[in-house]
Amino acid sequence: MHTRAARLVLLAIFIASLAVAAFLFRKSESLAAAQLTTARTFEASARMAEHSLVELRATQRGYVAAGQTGDFWIPRVAQSVGSLQQTVASLRAAAISPVAQASLDEVTSALGDFARVDKRAIEYIRRAQPLLASDVIFGEGRELTDSALAALEQARGAESGARLAAADTEARRGVFALIAAAASSLLAVLLLVPQTAPARTAADADRSAGVRAAQPLRGESATPAAAVSSQEPQADTIAAEAGAEPGTGAVEASLPAPGPAGFAPTMVTTDFGGVAALCVDLARVVDTRALPSLLERARTILDASGIILWIADPDGRELNPIFAQGYPPQLINRLGTIPRDAENATAAAFRTSLLQTVVADTISAGAIAAPLVTPGGCVGVMAAEVMHDAERQDMKLAAATIVAAQLATLVGPPAKAQARSGAAGA
Question: Cα torsion for 76, 78, 84, 89, to the nearest 10°?
Fold first, then answer.
């Protein structure tokens, strides 16, 4: 890109690509927000329909309630059925999930059957046959409303999942637009950076000066070749002055040795502002019910798929899992305990009070085991199953150590009290 016109064209293309990327990102964000709003609206309408179905069933039972007359309840049931049919039709038109659409069709069919069953119950009431009406209301009527409620719940769940998936797709498109914009920016910067000519050595300068001196003016005779060669400096002399071997250029001798082929240092960043905020919130914990949300933040900072807090028993012979974040709720009941002398990173961190790591391989993920150390000794371990080679990154290891140190303060006092009581007993 040496010419001015080419550089201007490239700059125009770069600006246009940034504008397109910004437009696509804004559009993706808007579409994702619209999907989430629609999902919330659909769920609210579906829950209202479920509530109306429950009220419809209770209203129909008023036909045969003691001291009630059917003339008061019959119009209300008919009105509720009509309103529910309109609501379900609106939900069916707004649904994008095939499962939700099929479920709403089942609700519509159940409401139609309920209307026919309601007519039979009304006929029995008008014939003064309340027992037959009760059989219809508490039998067929209840079955139809239960079926409609189940179908509505299924439609609500399916539609919510489909809307969230659509919003996630739009968000991914926005991220892709940003990545494309970043790539185009990098390419444009590389192409627009002016290319500087290589530095001229003293030999090159003298050589060009000698050539210019050797070129004749118009009307003059050419300078003999000996005059030109006498003005050229000796390359070996220049190399010797630069500290190079004779026969090599001074510039070549001054260049640094190239690094290994394909070597590119990577920069790893860690949100230490988030670590500081997390430690502040951990210091304010007065109820263990706040720990799951705080461990979730720690999991994000450490790039971990899950975190388990292991706390030692009073004798310090084994570790017990007390909190697990990022795993199924029933995991703690299945984990069991870890003996102090077990051959794993968690037990090693507890025994040595030193940070332990497990390097990821093709089968298992990496792990970080950070001890919870107090003045009375190690009282537990924070074990994190990490991703993206976080166990190799010094910043992540430092963050894990900081978080574990703050967590130790939550269980530290019992350990210190135990140490004091042990000393008193001694």
Answer: -150
**Distance, CA of 426 to chain centre:** 52
Over residues 144-194, the pLDDT tens digits come to 989 999 999 999 899 889 989 988 888 888 888 778 878 877 777 777 666
Give the amino acid at 38: T
What sign does the dihedral 203-205-206-210 (CA atoms) show? Answer: positive
Say how far apart CA 426 and CA 414 lie, in whole Å: 18
Cβ 391 vs Cβ 368: under 8 Å: yes
Express each pLDDT in 326-355 by its tens digit: 988 777 778 889 999 999 999 999 999 999
CB atoms closer than 10 angstroms to residue 313: 11
**CA 312 to chain CA mean position, Å:** 32
3-state secondary structure of 316: coil
Tell me the mean pLDDT in the region 108-113.
91
All structural domains of the chain: 4-189 (1.20.120), 272-425 (3.30.450.40)
